[in-house]
Amino acid sequence: MIRKTLFASGASLLAAACLVIPAMAADDLPDATKKILAKLKLKPDIMAGIDEELKVPADWRTKAKAEDAVKILASWDPAQFKALSAPFRARFPEVQISYVRGGRYDRGVKPLMALKSGRFLSDVIVSPGGDWVRYKQVNALEDLRVLPNYKRLGKDMREPEGNWVGQKVAHRCMAYNTKKVKKSEMPKTWDDLVTNPRWRGGKLGVPNRPNLWLSMLWLSKGPQWMEDYLKKLFGTVKPQLRKEGANAMIALTVAGEFDATVAAAAYRLKQYQDKGAPIAFHCPTPVPVAISLLMVLKNNPHKYSSLIFTNWFLSKEGQIAQFAANNAIPVREDLARRKEFMPYPEEVIGKPVAIRDEGVLRIEYPKLVALYDPLWKAAGGPVEAKGPGKTFKVKLTGVKRGGRIISFKLKGKDESARISRRRTAVFLNGKSASRKKLKAGMSCDVTYPGKGGRASKVACKQ
């Protein structure tokens, strides 16, 4: 079913509450928050009521002080997390934080495997995708209805039983090269994309990521529409079918390898646009919307630190800090409806949306994959090996595209692996490092699934 708007509840209550809250003075805010508001050119009164939002039971702070560092596992770049968490550190100095960035496998599967042996790899997990259901099935999730700010979320942004809360909203639409495409040429609907000859013959780039855009359309329009759509997409449009991920596809669109691509996230594209890249964002209808989740593991050793951080993150201060760090659209309705917190409001406001429901998708997605995979393969789409793979000791023979691709010899044959900025853990001399630091001649332990797949870990020595 196609939704007319994203936020469908809670607006009247939140609006009424805002009317009776006094204005916030800048002097009452942490310096880190003042800097964020200045960066975004926001007035301090947007933080009205923040003290009330951050009130937690007194014993939470006392118990958190006795805990070691809470372990947070997410997909933020380390620099982004440092920036977004600065106000929290100022407000709650007694709460220690340990942050680790991990790929989808690290966030969804590995912590659950560790739990089964009685170990906690993390306490707070951000963006676990549909794997949250597996945690629920083994009763491993904290009930987040205890959080004061849980009630301030609309129903789309919280699980009814408190198993998760929203982390960010992402609109997954199209990216197009402004040197090659006019805005007027962009499709108004997703059907227009496969019926207009403008996009045929390799002018469209498509990553093998149906979960990022087609899953929403599947839930909105149904299996029969999807079957007809995919046959037109692969059989008539004949796009470039790529092994790169959605974020890398934005970079390839900027480079001109194709005129446009699908499944682009607005916040990621904005980062390229802010640097002057010839790229723009466009949303055919219905607008595919993904809600990233945040969950807290039950009985973790840092329970109260976990709850305090999560409650702060759901506050206006936490959501604005995240937006300042990476342009992620807030899950708070009172913020998300404001144009200041939407990278491309003109592409979304007033349009029908198709929301990815992770709970329903857990059942429906295998049906989509069963339809999609044979058509992707028949059209010549590259297939990536799954899982983290095995670890091999190699010497790098080449490094391309700023560390995005590494080459090496394996059993006498030339091999390569892709390095993702977000999903590959890169270490140099035992310390976390940028993929840009990788050089030919380095001796490395490379963990990857083979056949040019994405490495989950690369540990090198200089």
What attributes does this structure have?
D-Maltodextrin-Binding Protein, domain 2, 462 residues, alpha/beta, single chain
Question: How is this structure best summarized?
Answer:
With 462 residues, the chain is α/β, with parallel strands linked by helices.
| Basic shape | globular
Helix/strand/pairing category: alpha/beta
Q: Which regions are unreliable across 5 or more consecutive residues at pLDDT < 50?
A: 8-24
Count every helix, treating DSSP H or I runs of 4 or more residues as helices: 18
Number of domains: 3
The CATH architecture term of the largest domain is: 3-Layer(aba) Sandwich
The helical percent reads 25-40%
Calculate the mean pLDDT score and round it. Answer: 90
CATH 4th-level superfamily of the largest domain = Periplasmic binding protein-like II
Beta-sheet strand percentage? Answer: 15-25%
Largest sheet entry: 10 strands, mixed
Q: What CATH first level of the largest domain would be assigned?
A: Alpha Beta
N→C terminal distance: 55 Å
Alpha-carbon Rg, integer: 22 Å
In total, the number of strands is: 17
Annotated CATH topology of the largest domain: D-Maltodextrin-Binding Protein, domain 2
